[in-house]
Amino acid sequence: MFGKALEHNHMLRRIKLALAMVVTLSVSVLMVAPAAAAGNSFFTLNPASGTYAVGNTITLGVSVTSGPTENINGVQADFSYPDTILQYVSTTLTGPFTTCASNSGGSGTVSLACASSTAQTGTQQVANIVFKVLSTGTATVAMTNGTDIQDSSLTSVWNGVLPTASYTISGTATTTTTTSSPKTPNTGSALVSTHPWVTLAGAAAAAAGLYALFTSIRTRRQSSSTTR
Predict the structure, then answer these.
(1) For the chain, how long is the longest CA-to-CA vector?
(2) Neighbouring-strand partners of residue 137
(3) Which of 67, 77, 79, 70 is nearest to 97 (CA)?
(4) Which helix (H) or strand (E) holds 11?
(5) Backbone angles phi, psi at 141, to 5 degrees
(6) Backbone dihedral region of 160: left (phi > 0), alpha (psi from -120 to 50 degrees) or beta?
(7) Contacts of 171 (CB under 8 A, 6+ apart)
């Protein structure tokens, strides 16, 4: 009985190991443990510093650069951040490393394990990580152990350097709001009520005045003709 149970446990372990290998090979990258420095390829974070206000967002760009004789096929990028100051919002893949075994963030950590379908050289973008600023202080986003860079043969070519980015957070962001006084609409009713030539009373008074003027002129003309 004990022998059968032991054999069953060994079988389950072999099945789990086989499944893990299938998942790993499906993304063409093996990221299971912190790697010792083995090459010259490295990560860059941009911007590495800056001053932001509460309510702002910070977009952290992650890129990778291969060593002179190296290629890059997969990246493992793990980060820590102060979740009392920053809130993780999203990660957007921005380069050729688009097949991911891990792409998540929150509660003070961000993790990326992504591979490219072809080996890459030079500097390549990896992702943009967006944070929202929650409170004042100094926020350090740091790459952590577990990070690695691997070539097409799944060999680590990372130089072992864990870059950091540090941000100074000030008070609440201010926005300028311009308030204009409401204008009185130029409507027909407004014209009728304010313009003497348009109101009925004004029109009547104007007509009476013109009639008196024309009558006076006519009387003077008649008087002048009679005199002659």
Answers:
(1) 152
(2) 169
(3) 77
(4) helix 2-26
(5) -100, 120
(6) left
(7) 53, 54, 136
Q: What is the Cα–Cα distance from 4 to 6, expressed in whole angstroms?
A: 5
DSSP letter, residue 28 = T
Q: How far apart are CA 136 and CA 55, in angstroms?
A: 10
CA 148 to chain centre: 26
Q: How far is CA 174 from the centre of its chain?
A: 18
7 vs 137: which has the higher pLDDT: 137
Higher pLDDT, 119 or 225: 119
- Quick one: CATH architecture of 26-172? Sandwich (2.60)
pLDDT at 215: 52
Q: What's the N-to-C CA distance of the chain in angstroms?
A: 152
pTM confidence score: 0.64
The dihedral region occupied by 178, where left means phi > 0, alpha psi between -120 and 50, and beta the remainder, is: beta
Torsions phi, psi of 98, nearest 5?
-115, -10
Domain ranges of the chain: 26-172
Going by C-alpha positions, the residue among 88, 70, 71 that lies closest to residue 79 is 88
Dihedral Cα 24, 108, 145, 67, nearest 10 deg: 80
Lowest mean pLDDT among 11-15, 44-48, 68-72: 11-15
Judge whether residue 12 has pLDDT over 90.
no
Residue-by-residue DSSP string for 197-228:
TTSHHHHHHHHHHHHHHHHHHHHHHHHHHHH-
Measure the CA–CA gap between 119 and 116, rounded to whole angstroms.
7
